[in-house]
Amino acid sequence: MPKDHGVGASSARREDIRFLTGGGKYTDDIVLQGQTHAVFVRSQVANGVIRSIDTTEAAAMPGVLAVFTGADFVDVGGNPAGWQINSRDGEPMKEPKRPVLAHGKVRHVGDAYAAVVAETEEQARDAAEAIVAEIDEEPAVVDMGQALEDGSPLVHDEIGTNQCFDWGWIEDNRAATDAAIKNAPHVTTLELVNNRLVPNAMEPRASMADYDPGTGDYTLYTTSQNPHLTRLLISAFVLGIPENKLKVVAPDVGGGFGSKIYHYGEEALVLAAAKRIGRPVRWTASRSESFLSDAHGRDHVTRIELACDTDGTFLAFRTETMANVGAYLSNFSTATPTFLHGTLMAGNYAVPNVYVNVRAVFTNTAPVDAYRGAGRPEATYSLERVIDMAARELGIDPLEIRRRNFVKPDQFPFTSAAGLEYDTGDYGALVDKLEEMIDRDGFEARRRDSAARGKLRGLGVNTYIEACGIAPSNLVGVLGARVGLYDAATVRVNATGNIAVMVGAHSHGQGHETAFPQVVADMLGVDENSIEIVHGDTSKIPFGMGTYGSRSLAVCGSAVVRATDKIINKGKKIAAHMLEASEADIEFTDGQFSVAGTDKSVGFGDVALKAYIPHDFPLEEVEPGLEETAFYDPANFTYPSGAYACEVEVDPETGKVTIERFAAADDFGNVINPMIVTGQVHGGLAQGIGQALLEQTTYDADGQLISASYMDYAMPRADDVPFYSVDHSCQTPCTHNPLGVKGCGEAGAIGSPPSVVNAVIDALHAGGHAHVTHIDMPLTPARVWSAINT
Amino acid sequence: MTQVTMTVNGKPVTGEVEGRTLLSDYLREDLRLTGTHIGCDTSQCGACVVHVDGKAVKSCTMFAAEAEGAEVTTIEGMGTADGGLTVIQQAFQDHHGLQCGFCTPGMVMTAAALLEETPKPTEAEIRDHLEGNICRCTGYHNIVKAIMAASGQDVSAVAAE
After folding, report:
1. Helix axes A558-579, A512-524, angle to 10 degrees
2. Contact call for B93 and A16, based on CB within 8 A
3. B80 touches chain A (CB under 8 A)
């Protein structure tokens, strides 16, 4: 029987009620007395020198309160990269300043160089159109290969190159990997593109700032996945407002997928503007602005080689990748193609040699940073495509070649050739489960049925491993992170027994408000409905690094567990006093503190009340109150893994691909709320299918973004995807966090693209188009048709 | 400025609007009915769907002045008389048909209009009808399932949880 409450129960989401009734409170829903409106003026050219900006007419227009240009921010700091990467030769990465507003030069279409604040949004927009900027357009560079050529236009003249870094991982493995490939009986080589995507959370970015001249306090409401990180960046790097004078609130946030991890210049602008005009300043992006200015994702060009024996035993993987970072370094942009990508290039496999080279490249395009999966989808796609190709060349079943090379269950903990220590896993069990799910025996009959209708059916599979629970601070510190990646929680038990849990993670769809109480309720033996989660407000929460990298439960949830443990320990002290027993003799089970070996006990609620009415406390031994905080820093990443299968139909007449079936078997370790976990996988699958078949961010050669709206950028719609078959019953719990959880938020997006592409290649081969060995994503009808017909 | 009068969620409202004011902006900014969301600027995403005279309409495709005399229902007007969830809203919660909640009001309004016209839609009909509503979180599985369940169809065969 499924559980009906606590850990393991599919508790209905309590946050749903407000979202289903129009009661959600998103940033753009907030109204402050006297609020004003900001509109940004954005570059229409990809590369240009700003000769002059005339704001005279705009400043005189009705309702206009202030006009800002880059000149207003030359004395404040830049928005920094959070991760220091060194090139193979030891040189630190190139790190040009990213200003609040562009000054001197604009570097991509959408680069904001001015802003107007007015009484109404319409007045601000009208005035923005009256700003006259003289910008000398210069040749832009969009293509990474061209950007690395001598004589290319430079995105940042002052650094003299478009190469941000040239990174090798692991440098000590390089010679052995080269030798293994040189001497291998079989080498499969694949050149592929991991297509550039726009995260497209349905809520556009928005910010509202308020300044209190009486106290000097600032408040920033903003669409953030991690309000404390935003505060830290603004305080320490950009505006220098001390943390204790800046409150950052991320209320309900309509999806993030990575794009709302980062601090953006618009947040700093509204803060500065609120102080200058003494009134709240509000800004909400249009969707067009989001396309132009949100951090994009992926955008790798990769050459991967797989060396193997004739029996399919993997001997080495060698990868050369160009990773687009766009015009400026966004906060996680240097970590994503390196330590979230290169370290995963051994996959699920006991391969002895791995070497990865990544060159990060500046181009005149929007910044590129972590998008759902962040580096791990790129790693998985490269590996699982080249493995599929090798299996086909060697005539080995695609699941069998993977099984032969898996890290075996008795090899854990296993240090991969890419340097990570996988704690647990059972990849064979996942493939067994997958085979149960997909009715492989019935596939040939389905293929014949498709053929009878003139369609080509294909089956594609892949496995994946990811590193989640980001991240162990001591490890990432060695790797160049400039922040720690722990998390924090405070558990406050109020006098009447209800509980508030302040968490550093932020929920923007993940259901923390429901799932976290399930954990605390089980530990304390109380009703989960008596527990409230407080998130998204730096003034209420001790600290936190937010939600990304499938980290909320594994890292912040562990902090919740540690804080709750402290509550229980404090409760034991109070109970010992109440029961006139020794603290060492107090046991806590099912919400009752009892004296071991006796029938003396006191309930959790009575202990809570006593904590706040300490009339007879031994105050030297026990403080009043029942509130505890814990910071939790993980010992290692967590390693979710999975085996996925996709069945497609290809129409050879049109090239259109239809997803007929999709099955995902995942190992997330222990699961707190299966309903929520399943939903997370569903969403990731749609994003992965979107990447594989539909989504393409396209700049033309001049740097114009020609896919800047939902009319031009193909988002997955309901009729592009099937009902998915999802299973997470294979569970090898994480060994180093107290919940044994691994994280589930990104799996679907990481694991699904290779299955889709593998399935299409399989369909084409079965249909007599064996010359097609690869098609780059997205597999649009035009691309598939062209591949068939060349 | 133009004076506009309409009925919103059963209550008569009158206001002054600019000719260029969209119905979506009027609902959100003037009436503070912020459950109607703006997710795009090309009438593609469907987060702003409301009912105008009983029909599902993207409220960003109409000027407020065009709704003169109309009966408008927004997500705030969708609950039961006693403040509870309607069958559709309840099905979305029961089947985890929402995550971040941003597209949800538009999904609910679109689903309600569908079931009004097609009481027992097939999976294909539902997916087709949702063509104008984008969700980035759920992968649509549980939205389609919720709408099928709300129409009284057995969804136990649709994959679990």
Report:
1. 30
2. yes
3. no
> What angle is formed at CA A383 by the lines to CA A466 and CA A662, rounded to 5 degrees?
70
Residue A367: which of A559, A749, A666, A99 has the closest Cα? A99
Q: Does B122 touch chain A (CB under 8 A)?
A: no
CA distance B88 to A137: 54
Question: What is the chain B residue with the closest CA to A8?
Answer: B161
Report ipTM for this prediction: 0.98
Interior/surface letters A54-84, b for 16+ CB within 10 angstroms, e for the rest: ebeebeebebbbbbbbbebbeeebbbbbbbb
Among B residues 11-70, those touching chain A with beta carbons less than 8 Å apart:
18, 20, 28, 32-42, 44-45, 47
DSSP A474-519: HHHHHTTBSS---EEEEEEE-TTS-EEEEESS--SSS-HHHHHHHH
Q: What is the pTM assigned to this prediction?
A: 0.97
Q: How far apart are CA A760 and CA A460, in angstroms?
A: 7
For residue A211, give the 3-state DSSP assignment: strand
- Joined together, the tokens standing for residue A160 give 């003299």
A vs B, Cβ pairs < 8 A, gives 192
Contact B124/A at CB under 8 A: yes
Which of A26, A286, A717 is the closest to B102 by Cβ?
A26
Residue contact A683–B131, C-beta within 8 A: no
Tokens linked to A546: 């937010």
Cα A90 to Cα A86, A178, A583, distances in angstroms: 6, 21, 56
pLDDT tens for B92-132 read 999 999 999 999 999 999 999 999 999 999 999 999 999 99
Cβ distance A165 to A365 under 8 Å?
no
Q: How far apart are the first and last CA of chain A?
A: 55
Could you write out the DSSP letters of every residue in A658-684?
A: EEEEEEEEEE-BS-S-HHHHHHHHHHH
Cis peptide bond prior to A581, omega within 30° of 0: no
A130 token code pair = 């009256």
Say if residues A458 and A766 touch (Cβ distance below 8 Å): yes
Q: How far is A692 from chain B (nearest CA, A)?
A: 14
What are the two backbone dihedrals, phi and then psi, of residue A740, each rounded to the nearest 5 degrees?
65, 25
Residues in B touching A15 (Cβ below 8 Å): 101
- Residue A76 pairs with which residues in a beta bridge? none
- If one counts every other C-beta atom within 10 angstroms of the C-beta of residue A242, the result is 10
Position B161 scores a pLDDT of: 47
Residue B142: left (phi > 0), alpha (psi -120 to 50), or beta? alpha
**Distance, CA of A682 to CA of A785 (rounded, Å):** 29
CA distance A505 to chain B (A): 15
Residue pair A270/A230 in contact (Cβ under 8 Å)? The answer is: no
Angle at A536 (CA atoms; ends A9, A745), nearest 5 degrees: 45
Distance of residue B36 Cα from the nearest chain A Cα, in angstroms? 7
Q: Touching check for B134 and chain A: CB below 8 Å? A: yes
- Give the closest-approach CA distance of A346 to chain B in angstroms: 29
pLDDT in tens, A302-352: 999 999 999 999 999 999 999 999 999 999 999 999 999 999 999 999 999
Which CA distances in Å does A785 have to A453, A554, A694? Answer: 18, 44, 15
Inter-chain residue contact A678 with B161, CB threshold 8 Å: yes
Contact B40 A686 (CB under 8 A): no
Write out the two tokens for B33: 């009915």
Contact: A203, B100; criterion CB under 8 Å:
yes
Task: Please provide the distance, in angstroms rounded to a whole number, between the alpha carbons at the two ends of chain B.
Answer: 52
| Cβ–Cβ gap A718/B145 under 8 Å | no
